[in-house]
Structure to design on (274 residues):
């Protein structure tokens, strides 16, 4: 039996809610075979990022070669890549292997406020990775940095999307999770603006929402859905994962990636604290 496969190139989150761990859980839940090339180990939890240890460029290349030579991914999601040399290796490998359906989440700052991108790497991200993407998925602060304009209204989101959509060949999805009123995301694609309306779910546990959305989009593209359908289904998935109301950790906790999975465990594994 064959299955569509997706590769994530991102950082590890030892607390399991974001990064590689969120990506692989999302891929499993969305019916694709997940693979990972680790760019960095992070020591983090729901309250913050306390350490980063990067992969060497050589070892990242080694991981990518192993993957592409063997199980060629139907889509690739790129998350945290914090240094210029790692960005160069990724761009080089993706071009060499003619990777398709590339989703770039330009991760700059974690939900907890910690920086995940070195200053000089921002330019490399812009010039080397964003041009390879079928879609880029900045949140509002990232879209402000990339477009150079301040975003304080839906009109400004449209302006930033159009600046980025004109600059890069792929689609641009600006995520509205940082808008406190609702959770509407804006897609600029092939000259059209398309709003994806999302009801804001009252849940403070949003660790890893960005990683999860981009992995769900990559999974859907791998399965052959078009761009709009892939985003629509990814939003449905993330709303379900947030709405499931998992509550773990002392800070902004993780979502329930497995909310829609038939689990092997038949006992009810959820419980309320006394
Ligand atoms: N409270 C919420 N209710 C419903 N949808 C939400 C909520 N918060 C975020 N989302 C959705 O989650 C997705 C990710 O958006 P967000 O802006 O949070 O990304 P991000 O900032 O990159 O995430 P991260 O916190 O992982 O860095 C978007 O589709 C957004 O609309
Ligand atoms: C490893 C990693 N990637 C991305 C994010 C952004 O949420 C995070 N917190 N950690």
């Amino acid at each position: 039996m064959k299955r569509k496969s997706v590769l994530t190139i991102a950082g590890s989150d030892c607390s399991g809610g974001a990064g590689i761990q969120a990506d692989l859980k999302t891929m499993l839940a969305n019916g694709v075979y997940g693979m990972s090339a680790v760019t960095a180990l992070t020591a983090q939890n729901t309250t913050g990022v306390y350490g980063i240890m990067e992969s060497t460029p050589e070892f990242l290349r080694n991981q990518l070669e192993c993957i592409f030579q063997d199980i060629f991914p139907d889509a690739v999601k790129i998350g945290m890549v914090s240094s210029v040399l790692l960005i160069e290796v990724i761009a080089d490998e993706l071009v060499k292997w003619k990777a398709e359906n590339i989703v770039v989440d330009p991760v700059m700052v974690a939900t907890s406020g910690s920086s995940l991108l070195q200053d000089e790497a921002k330019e490399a991200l812009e010039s080397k990775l964003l041009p390879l993407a079928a879609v880029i998925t900045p949140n509002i602060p990232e879209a402000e940095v990339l477009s150079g304009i301040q975003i304080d209204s839906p009109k400004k989101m449209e302006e930033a999307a159009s600046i980025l959509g004109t600059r890069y060949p792929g689609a641009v999805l600006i995520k509205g999770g940082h808008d406190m009123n609702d959770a509407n995301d804006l897609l600029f694609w092939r000259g059209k603006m398309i709003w994806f309306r999302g009801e804001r779910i009252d849940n403070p546990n949003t660790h890893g929402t960005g990683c999860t959305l981009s992995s769900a989009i990559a999974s859907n593209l791998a399965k052959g859905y078009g761009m709009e359908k892939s985003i629509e289904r990814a939003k449905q998935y993330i709303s379900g994962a947030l709405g499931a109301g998992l509550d773990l950790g002392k800070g902004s906790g993780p979502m329930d990636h497995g909310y829609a999975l038939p689990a092997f465990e038949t006992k009810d594994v959820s419980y309320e604290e006394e």
